[in-house]
Specification:
With about 260 residues, the chain is α/β, with parallel strands linked by helices. Helices cover about 20% and strands about 25% of the residues. It has 6 helices and 14 strands. Helix 1 runs parallel beside helix 3.
């Protein structure tokens, strides 16, 4: 079994040092709780509600920033997935996520589906979401709005992901009483149709008047939620990350083997 911990934080625009420090505290706390996989929110280093490209650039960091080595050490062997505002070598800004293990950064993914005002500040990535073979399991990563494209979640399942990690910043969405955020419904469906656990780490707080869903949830391979964030913003679930490698769901059905891509 692998212990997956999502840490729902409240980063602030323009406060890079504060955001980095808060993320370090969260990583250390999750490592002390013996996490195998730690997931932090989208843009945890920079905040989200920018008012200009210059403001977004002021808290962007390069993929080689020293904080990632620090988080790798803080994690005590756990895998860490975290969102950050990336300043690319090409001078463009990207809404990115990094996957770290005890050896350092293993992959950086640039969000390919930008949401609303993100298009004013960031350049969309042009590479598919990675699936990284770690000591824990094969871990995929994508960011927030990416999750709403079934082709994306199916692609990481086809490439053998045992767990999909999704740093998010989900703006508040009105919903009927008693119903979860629509993004959680999407994640539940994606987990179920791919027999693949999904860990979605949302953010919290109010930033420049923007509320958030605060809907951090870890879904099992059957699509049912196993954990949501507690009052401290932490969601914890123990998962058998290799159980989903068998995609059979009945004596005669296989979720991937039954596909008919020639008809789609």
């Amino acid at each position: 079994m692998a212990k997956v911990i999502c840490c729902e934080l409240a980063p602030s625009v323009g406060e890079l040092d504060r955001n980095l420090a808060a993320a370090s505290v969260a990583v250390r706390a999750a490592a002390a709780a013996r996490a195998d996989v730690i997931v932090l929110p989208e843009l945890v280093t920079s905040g989200y509600c920018f008012q200009s490209v210059d403001e977004a650039r002021s808290t962007s960091i390069r993929a080689a920033h020293e904080v990632f080595a620090r988080w790798s050490d803080d994690a005590a062997g756990a895998v860490v997935v975290a969102g950050f505002a990336e300043l690319g070598d090409d001078g463009n800004l990207y809404n990115s996520a990094v996957l770290l293990d005890g050896t350092g950064a293993r992959a950086v993914y640039r969000k390919t589906h930008l949401w609303d005002a993100e298009k004013l500040y960031f350049t969309a990535g042009d590479a598919p979401p990675p699936v990284v073979d770690t000591a824990v399991a094969r871990i995929g990563l994508m960011i927030c709005y990416d999750l709403e494209f079934p082709e994306m979640t199916r692609s990481v399942a086809l490439r053998g992901a045992d767990l999909l990690t999704v740093p998010t910043n989900w703006p508040w969405v009105d919903r009927p009483d008693g119903m979860p955020a629509p993004e959680i419904v999407i994640a539940m469906a994606a987990a179920r149709v791919n027999k693949m656990p999904i860990a979605c780490c949302d953010r919290r707080g109010i930033e420049r008047g923007q509320r958030w869903n605060e809907s951090t949830t870890i879904m099992g391979a059957d699509g049912w939620p196993l954990a949501t964030a507690d009052a401290a913003g932490t969601a914890v679930a123990d998962l058998d990350l290799r159980a989903g490698r068998d995609k059979r769901i009945s004596g005669r059905n296989d979720l991937l083997g039954d596909r008919r891509p020639d008809l789609y």
